[in-house]
Amino acid sequence: MKKITHPERSILRYRWMALTGLVLVLIYTALTGCNQASGAKTTLSDTAAVIGEMNAELTHAPFVPNSRGAFQPEKVIVKIEVVEKVMKLADGVDYTFWTFGGSVPGPFIRVQEGDEVELHLSNSPGNKMPHNIDLHAVNGPGGGAEATLTVPGHSSVFTFRVMNPGLYVYHCATAPVGMHIANGMYGLVLVEPKGGLPKVDKEFYIMQGEFYTKGKNGEAGLQPFDMDKAIKEQPEYVVFNGSVGAATGSNALQAKVGDRVRLYVGNGGPNLVSSFHVIGQIFDKVYQEGGSQVNQNVGTTLIPSGGAAILEFTCHEPGTYNIVDHSIFRAFNQGALAQLIVSGPEDKVVYSGKVKDELYQPGSPEVSESEAPAEASIPDLPLAERIKKGQVLFETNCSSCHQPTGLGLPGAIPPLAQSDFLMNRQDKGIGVLLHGLNNEAITVNGNHYQGVMPQLPLSDDQIANILSYVRNNWGNKSPVVQEKEVKKLRNQ
Hints:
The chain is α+β, with helices and mostly antiparallel strands. It has helices at 6-32, 177-182, 227-231, 329-334, 383-397, 399-402, 420-423, 430-435, 460-470, 483-491, and strands spanning 53-55, 75-90, 93-100, 109-112, 116-123, 134-135, 155-161, 166-171, 186-192, 202-211, 221-223, 237-240, 253-256, 260-269, 274-278, 285-287, 294-295, 300-303, 307-314, 319-325, 337-343, 358-359, 367-368, 437-444, 447-453.
């Protein structure tokens, strides 16, 4: 009898799941189908007749298709191919994604209230699994899941009339449903109200999702899906637009001072609720849960798994604005971080920046550094003492971004461990801690970053301690950094 190898067992297991999926999809359809309540019936009597036909413009995140403006309902043909492919999840980390249209999230679909959508779902012949699509914008059993169950090498077609304006998630609903979603099978469909949404200057598409890998966060190589972690809702990665750093640095969103910005934000899940926030911006309009209800002047908005929101604000001040899931460890430790870079003139009335830095002595009058008495001399301290003090300061001020290992966050926060950028600087890195980095393009160990670091309120002695620790840890080796070196550069 032929011995079954591990890869063959995996294939047989997936085929078994696919077959059982056919039965489970019918159960899913029965559970999610819309039953008309007794009484009033939903009709299309108030919807204009469909005139004309067009192929949908589909875009990949962070881009959004153009609005058609005020037009009569049309027949809109949407063609999506499902592709199973290996792509980058983080620096050095690959993953076998299951995708709509070859990307995570899938393409953005934009239609108008009253349109008739003819959806073609093709399952690439090279795929291993059957797939389908459940669009939350559909009024019909399973959101189209039953009509589109498609095996590799086949295509399915169905039509539906979009009757409710809003922003909706779509996803694969083939069993096991959670696994298909966790592998990246989700996207957004916008149903604009009749006449379209008000015009804005910039529109962007952002979608959050979780990935459950066998290896720990940052563990290199091709990582398989971990069902146990998914069931326990313990992802290794929580990211925007399919990978760590997908919308940071050179991939950051771009706008100008004065631009009116609209974000279409979805949460593919499959498990976690997103606390969506743009640091330094206030949403003056939030279409709550992607519907018609508008909230105003919101700082952070909740987006449920399988839900969406439309967010609007005006850019008043230039700079780099970090976009995060404010369940904040997801942002700085698991990858839920994007950036909006706004260019243009400053307005000191809107935001002054730091205008004063004074010494603080509790119980004593505030004294500026220029008024402080000059010290006769600053003693040199041994390297071991500065390293000991510097470790405590680093863990308090720096480790949340650069990590206790000094490795940073791939694609977002540069490493300090064996960093050529840090170790080759003539000022030993003192200038960075004194002045911060304001959206500067930097290269660290051959990788490019958009250097953004706040100016920290540290004394000369504290800066010397932190740099002595950092420059003598994780494979770094350097002489001690003394307080007088910091003071000299500060006075310059």
